[in-house]
Amino acid sequence: MNKNSYGHPTAIFITLTISILLTGSSCQKNLNSKGLQATSLAQTGVSTGSARLIANTPVPVATALLNNPMGTAVDVSNTVYVADFKNHVIRKITPEGMVSTLAGNGIAGFKDGPGASAQFNYPISVTVDRAGNVYVADFGNQRIRKISRDGVVITLAGDGIAGNTNGAGVLARFNGPAGITIDGNRNLYVADEFNRLIRKITPEGVVSTWAGDGKFGYVDGRGVEAEFANPQFIVSDAPGNLYLTDGLYNKIRKIDRHTVVTTLAGTGYPGIVDGPAATAQFHVPTGISVDMNGTNVYVSDEFNQRIRKIGPDGKVSTLAGFGMGLTPGGYMDGPGIHANFQNPQGLSVDAFGVLYVADYYNNRIRKISTEGFVSTMAGTGTAGHADGPGITVHFEWALDLTIDRSGNIYVLDEGNRLIRKITPKGIVSVFAGSGLQGTIDGPGVFAQFNQPNGMASDSSGNLYVAETVDHKIRKITPDGTVSTFAGSGNYGFADGPALSASFYFPSGVTVDHDQNVYVGDLYNNRVRKITQAGMVSTLAGSSTHGYADGTGSAALFNWPNGVAADPAGNIYVADQINDKIRKITPAGVVTTLAGSTFGYADGTGAAARFKGQHHLATDAAGNVYVADYGNHAIRKITPAGVVTTLAGNGTEGYADGTGSAARFSHPEGLVVDAAGNVYVADVGNHRIRKITPAGVVTTFAGDGIGGY
User: Fold this and answer.
1) What whole-number percentage of the chain has pLDDT above 90?
2) Kind and range of the H or E element at 592?
């Protein structure tokens, strides 16, 4: 069986840094000469069976538990606030070392009200005003929330529907509010990631566009003349200047009080180079903060596993961490150059110059003293755990699916770094992976994955996994043995023998009827082919990103993401930034099957619209299925290019039902079985959903609680 698809730059943020996403990745070094040092802080969750509720009783930092903290903020009393991303709560850490939950009950959802009963949906970042009110970029809810000093949560702006609308309060719309900051006049600024805009919210709640034209790109200029790729974290200084990380372009941007956008540091190329701002290099910068005087800017350099500093003279240095680009992070406190992080995200600086870092995969809050010593302020590094009957299982960012000839479903559980197996009876188990981050080949549970994104299976039951940030394709045999199938591990572009070939953020993967493996090579803007004899070649695309149909290298893509093969050997590509579904014949001829501009519309060919399409799958009749991530829907495209919505209605949520009555939350991966049933990795709902050919949606596995 072939499968089709990707995951995201979250992060590659992805998300994801993948991000997405979406997310991306991000290499040599000149450590600063002061021999700086590093430390850590806190977190604790209580499992209550069907719902994970967070303990509201303060606990010491040494026993507190966090679940992928993303953002931090510090107030004038040195109380630290944490966006506890996968616990869906806002945590509070006092100077005395006690951790409590300020707001949120630990269940993903949306609800205003007193702190303990309020609900958030993947809060990413926080900021705090002089009066002690906390503001939250509630990413999954597409809203900006406010928490008063007594813990009451209200919605300041956004109606919960992804979009781009200015206006007052709940009349406004956001699309991936990620970073948030506040200036001296109590204006809020939001890095609206998927709209590629910087939004401003006045104290009265009126939302407007401060900078950006909404197009994907890199342009300095005034206000709406500027362009961003994926603005994430943002911070303001005392005079009112804004600083933000534009991760996919590996740059630090600055916006002055007159909306003029300039580049503060970074060449745009991923790497690890200290020195003058114009020649310095970052590798997917995420978190950002600035000291009280606005003289020093601090940056979480995620894929370099470092905290960088941009001084008043414009020179970039390494404050803490010793990663060398794409090397897996780790955990170690100590002097700056000896400390280790694992995908650091948001950070904040207090009045005394002490930094607080959300150390994402270490599930800790780290503290960096003015002398550069890194310690752990909070968190033990532990999260949650559970296998068993499908409906009781936890998934953490299930990004992709594939199926074997026996009807077993395999789940790429990116957040847990595992490949999970679901039998036709719904029993879930671990097929491969130890849960530890790394790139270790070997038998089943002894193997390690770093950031797997796409997965497919061949007719013999072998699985192929795209390891995005390691630039490799891994292979898993039916007995669970993991090996490296292709890729040297060095990012770049090179065809040839599989283990010496180079990829640059491979994301989607599929297998045709001849057992050839195809890869959506995201940053190379190419679709690659790997034969079973171990030779890598380029099927279509070139180093230039853009949009053009044509044959082979004459065709242009802009982030080819998910891929899928039909029974005739045609390859379909989710051309993400172009918002189109492309078709490649076995001869390498590229055409556009469907899609035009960013949006939501059914129709034929160019009349149809998609919003952030990630993964694809095909059935025996040659129909293509699209996980329309931003529209929260599953779309179907006939061989003639007619696009319809199979399930979902464009509104985010969770509901089983038929067709438009069903709801999804950021569907990612999908696969079709021999009977025509479609299985969907419903990422935001932490569930695997099943759609019959008649469009009836049910929940196949997962209880809706993130974790393992």
Assistant:
1) 63
2) strand 589-594
